Amino acid sequence: MIKLSIFLTRRPDLSHDEFVDYWTQKHTPLLSTLPAGEVPVRRYVQLLPTDDEIPGISTADYDGVAEVWVDSIADATRWFTSDTYTTTIAADEENFLDRSRTRFLYSTESPIFG
């Protein structure tokens, strides 16, 4: 499987709390309205930052991270270029994301412990 870590930054006119509220309460429920089988995603997790800090260690400047697991990069490509994604999901992202600052990390997991 391929894991996509998608680093998200809010629109400059929104507070972090407004971003979180929109992402979790309005945007995410859109996924449940899509036709069954259309989303080739095996797992979807939202990571929300805490206010914690460790002295001397820099903190990433993102408002959240979406983790998406797919069977292959072909599935990811099919999803992120589909009409449904571009007209429904991406269109709604304009309401809370600064899409110009969104970054993707494509990875595989190599469990070490735990």
Summarize the structure in words.
By secondary structure, the protein is an alpha+beta fold. The chain is built from three helices and four strands; from the N terminus they run βαββααβ. It has a four-stranded antiparallel beta sheet with strand order 2-3-1-4, covered by helices on one side. The protein is globular and about 45 Å long. The mean pLDDT is 93.
Attribute tags:
4 strands; alpha+beta; 114 residues; 23% strand; 4-stranded antiparallel sheet
Overall average pLDDT: 93
Strand order of the largest sheet: 2-3-1-4
Strand content: 15-25%
Helical percentage: 25-40%
- Please report the number of helical segments: 3
State the order of secondary-structure elements, H for helix, E for strand: EHEEHHE
Structural class: alpha+beta
Tell me how many strands there are: 4
Ranges where pLDDT stays below 50 over 5 or more residues in a row are: none
The largest pleated sheet is described as: 4 strands, antiparallel
Global Rg: 15 Å
The N- and C-terminal alpha carbons lie at a distance of 19 Å
Domain EthD: 11-100
Pfam family, one: EthD
Protein name: EthD domain-containing protein
Organism: Streptomyces iconiensis
